[in-house]
Structures are given as C-alpha cells and as structure tokens.
UniProtKB/TrEMBL annotation:
GO molecular function (one): alpha-1,4-N-acetylgalactosaminyltransferase activity
Source species: Polypedilum vanderplanki (Sleeping chironomid midge)
Highest taxon, organism lineage: Eukaryota
Name the record gives this protein: Alpha 1,4-glycosyltransferase domain-containing protein
GO cellular component, one term: Golgi membrane
Listed InterPro entries: A1-4-GlycosylTfrase_dom, Glycosyltransf_32, GlycoTrfase_DXD_sugar-bd_CS, Nucleotide-diphossugar_trans
Localization (cell): Golgi apparatus membrane
Domain Alpha 1,4-glycosyltransferase: 213-332
Membrane-spanning segments: 12-32
GO biological process terms held by the UniProt record: glycosphingolipid biosynthetic process
Family according to the record: Belongs to the glycosyltransferase 32 family.
Bilayer topology: Single-pass type II membrane protein
Keyword line: Glycosyltransferase, Golgi apparatus, Membrane, Transferase, Transmembrane, Transmembrane helix
Length: 336
C-alpha cells in the first residue's frame, strides 16, 4: 500500500513535466504574442507572405552572441519607426538565436512591446541568403574573414534583405521623425558629406526594376569584398554601385537616375558624423534642434557616440528627440 502511495506523486510529476515539454514544443511553432509586439517563431525561415510589403521597415541585429544586448538607443530607434509609422510592419531581425527569445527580460525592450506593428524574428544567415546570387559566397564562409564581421554582416545582409523582400532598411542608430509615407520615391538613399558619399544606413529598394540594383549590390560584394576596411562594403560599395547604375562619375550634377533618388544630407543626416557630439551636449541643443527640424531621420552615429551616456535630466538634443519619438523607451530607462 505504501508503494502505491509513493508512485502516484511520481506519476503525477512525470505527467506535469511531459505536459510542459509538449506545450513548449507547440509554442515553438507559433507566433508568440508578447503584449502586442509579435515574436515570430524560428520555425519561420522567411518573412510570412501575408506581412510582405515594400512599405516594411527593417532593422538588423547582427551580433551573433547572446551576451550583447540591444542598447536603450537601439530600442529608441525601433520605437520611433513604429510610433511614426503605425500602419507599417516593423521587423527587427536577430542573428543570435537566444537573444530574441529573452526579449521580455530586457529592460530596454519593455517600452516597445506595446506596439502591435513590431515583429521580432531570429534569422539564419544561410536561409536568409538562399535563392540570391550571394548564396554560394555566404556558404563558403568568406564573411568570417572580415575584421569587422558584425558591421560587414549587416552591410551584406541588408542588400540581400531588400533584394528578396523590398522595403526600407534602417540602422539601429537612426531615429525616425516622420511618416515615411511622406517620401514619395520608391527607391532612395541619402547623401553624406557634400554629395560625395551615399550612406547605406538608410536605404529603400523595391524590385520594380526587376531586382537589378539589388543584384548589382550583391555582385559587387562577391567581386570586391574587403574585410579590412570598415566602410568598404557599406557606404563606399553603395556609392560605387550607384555610380554604375546611374552611369555617372560623380553626383555633383544629379541626384536621380531611373527610379532611384538620392535625398539630400539635410533630410537624413542633418548633423554630420564629425559633429556627432552636438547631439549630447546641452550648449548645442538649440542649434541641433533647428538643424533637424525638416529632416525625416536623425542619425546619431553610434560608432562614435556609444560611450556617451546621458542622464534624463540633461537638456541635450538627443534627450529631447528621445522623449518625443521613443516616449516609452525614454520613460522606462534611467540613462538614454
């Protein structure tokens, strides 16, 4: 009789464990609604067809380690895109498989889980580039030779992303100030440094040209990848390809060719990288706010500014922008 009493709790315990295992497996095949933001299960190897649109906005997080979390400022960028474009799908794609499953525990993310148009998804590089011209190049592991692997992975995958799906790519240090529906051009990037460089931190490509530009970008990676130069596969590559696409030697006399438009620096990068610190100093705040007044975007140059933290009591321009364009993230974090 004592043996029977002993077995019942054990059987019950095993039944509970079995139920939890089965439940977790079932959950892994579904999209998990997290408050309102949606975490798309890694069972999805592609962007769900019902969510595909040339209006989609994409962010890429290409640190392939679980210990590198998104910063408060990156979360601010994501929230600003969702806030200013409420009817647009915002995709945040993670290269690290463990990172996106722990989002609810990240204080930086609490502010953006309220947006139903934000979709969070893990992606596998090989699956991501499948059926593109760069597929074999990626599978050979040539990207691993880069000295700046995180940056160059982001550079290359944004080209593959826009070639496959169309839409707008934004770096995680870009704040969106307006509805991007106001930009009437189907394909665009923005000048940096007086029309000499076209930066790829803000880039829209649709396939209305048959994917010609997207293929040109990917083929340029295959032909001239440089793992030793930080910007060679990013702004420099985009500038080279656009010159070929537009059949020009410089952009001094043109900012449009075919269906591609290069927006002025003032609309996208109103504060140049050489003056990145102006965003974070109180004495420059009025000047900065006047400079960004007509811009669609604010690029705060994370490579330079990542170590410059602000207390919320500061009246620096970045705090003013964050409080307006990412209010939830701003409210839930002590430092910004």
């Amino acid at each position: 009789m004592n043996q029977i009493k002993f077995k019942k709790p054990v059987v019950l315990l095993f039944a509970i464990i079995a139920f939890l295992i089965i439940y977790s497996v079932l959950i892994s095949f579904m999209s998990i609604e997290c408050d309102q933001a949606i975490i798309i299960s890694d069972g999805f190897r592609e962007i769900p067809s019902n969510l595909m649109s040339s209006r989609n906005i994409y962010f890429l997080e290409t640190h392939n380690t679980s210990d590198h979390f998104l910063t408060t400022r990156a979360a601010c960028s994501i929230e600003s895109a969702a806030l200013m474009n409420p009817n647009t799908n915002i995709f945040v794609l993670f290269l690290s498989p463990s990172k996106y499953t722990r989002l609810k525990n990240w204080s930086q993310f609490q502010g953006i889980l309220n947006y139903k148009n934000i979709h969070l998804k893990y992606f596998n590089t090989e699956d991501f580039t499948k059926d593109t011209v760069i597929d074999d190049w990626i599978n050979k592991g040539l990207l691993s030779s880069s000295w700046y692997q995180v940056v160059h992975t982001s550079d290359i995958l944004r080209y593959a992303l826009l070639y496959k799906y169309s839409g707008i790519y934004l770096d995680l240090d870009v704040i969106v100030r307006k509805s991007l529906d106001e930009i009437e051009f189907e394909n665009f990037a923005c000048f940096q440094d007086d029309r000499e460089i076209v930066n790829n931190a803000i880039l829209k490509i649709t396939n209305d040209d048959g994917g010609v530009l997207g293929k040109m970008l990917l083929n340029e990676v295959i032909s001239h990848f440089d793992g030793f130069d930080w910007s060679m596969n990013g702004p420099k590559l985009l500038t080279r390809v656009l010159k070929n696409y537009c059949d020009v030697t410089d952009f001094l006399s043109t900012s449009k060719c075919g269906n591609f438009t290069i927006l002025t620096q003032e609309l996208c990068y109103p504060i140049p990288w050489q003056k990145w610190d102006d965003y974070f100093t109180e004495q420059d705040s009025q000047k900065v706010m006047e400079s960004v007044e007509n811009s669609y975007f604010v690029h705060f140059w994370n490579r330079k500014s990542e170590g410059k933290m602000l207390e919320k009591r500061s009246h620096a321009a970045f705090n003013q922008l964050a409080s307006k364009y990412c209010p939830h993230v701003y409210a839930t974090n002590v430092l910004i």
